[in-house]
Amino acid sequence: AQSVTQLDSHVSVSEGTPVLLRCNYSSSYSPSLFWYVQHPNKGLQLLLKYTSAATLVKGINGFEAEFKKSETSFHLTKPSAHMSDAAEYFCVVSDLEGNKLTFGTGTQLKVEL
Amino acid sequence: NAGVTQTPKFQVLKTGQSMTLQCAQDMNHEYMSWYRQDPGMGLRLIHYSVGAGITDQGEVPNGYNVSRSTTEDFPLRLLSAAPSQTSVYFCASSYSGPHTEAFFGQGTRLTVV
C-alpha cells in the first residue's frame, strides 16, 4: 500500500523568503512522486515530478524538490516566495502496485507582504 | 487546446435525485479518473479507467457508477444523491497511467440538500 503525509496543513511566509513544504511517503515499490498546485476555485496543475531519474527535480515557477529515499521524503522548496504562490499544494505518490494516485491532505501556503 | 472539460461547474441536487457529471478529454489519453475533494482530506479516488471498456473502483466508489464507451468520455453517475456526496468533483486524464502527468478539469461543485 502507498500513502503520503504532508506534515503541515498551513504554512505562512513573507514575500521574498524561502518556502519549504514537507512531504513523507510510503510505498512498496519504486514510487513516482509529484507535487500539484491548486489555486482557488481552479483545477490542479503539475509543478514537478520524480520518476527515478535525478533526485533533485526542478519544476515550474522556481519550485524544486529533492527525493531522499533514506528519509522517504520529497519536500518542496522555493528560494523566494511570491504573492502568486499562495495556493494549496498536494504531494502525490503513484506506484506500479496500485495503478492509482494517492494524494496527501494538502498544505495551504499563505504569502504575506 | 480544450484539455479536460467537466460539466456542469455547479449543481444543486435534492436527496434521492440522480445525475451525471460529464468529463471529456481531447488528448487521446488512455487513463481517466474521478476524484472527490473534501476539506482536509485531499483528493480521493472514486473510479478510474485504463482504457475504453475498462473501469475499476477506487477508494470511495459507493454511490457512484462509471462507464467508458469511448476514449474521450468518462461520465460519473450519482445513483441516488445523499448529503454525504456534497463535494467538489474532479476528472483527470493521463497518457498511459498514474505515473504520468495527470491533467485535471476545473471541477464540479455539487451540493446535495
Summarize the structure.
The complex is a heterodimer of chains A (113) and B (113). Chain A has 113 residues and is mostly beta strands.
Percent strand of chain A = over 45%
Mean pLDDT of chain B: 94
Biggest beta sheet attributes of chain A: 6 strands, mixed
Over all CA atoms, what is the radius of gyration of chain B?
Answer: 13 Å
Structural class of chain B: mainly beta
So how many helices of chain B?
0
Write down how many β-strands of chain B occur, each being a DSSP E stretch of 2 or more residues. 11
Q: What value does the Rg of chain A take, in angstroms? A: 13 Å
Order of helices and strands of chain B: EEEEEEEEEEE
Which consecutive residue ranges of chain B, at least 5 long each, have pLDDT under 50? none
> Percent of residues of chain B in beta strands?
over 45%
Number of helices of chain A: 0
Spell out the key features of this protein.
heterodimer, A: mainly beta, 6-stranded mixed sheet, 4-stranded antiparallel sheet, globular, B: mainly beta, 7-stranded mixed sheet
Q: Can you walk me through this structure?
A:
The complex is a heterodimer of chains A (113) and B (113). With 113 residues, chain A is mainly β. Chain A contains no helices and twelve strands. In chain A, the strands form three sheets. In chain A, strands 2, 5, 6, 10, 11 and 12 form a six-stranded mixed beta sheet that branches. In chain A, strands 3-9-8-7 form a four-stranded antiparallel beta sheet, with no helix packed on it. Chain A has a two-stranded antiparallel sheet with strand order 1-4. The model of chain A has no long low-confidence stretch (mean pLDDT 92). Chain B has 113 residues and is mainly beta. Chain B contains no helices and eleven strands. In chain B, strands 2, 4, 5, 6, 9, 10 and 11 form a seven-stranded mixed beta sheet that branches. The interface between A and B is medium-sized, with 24 and 24 residues.
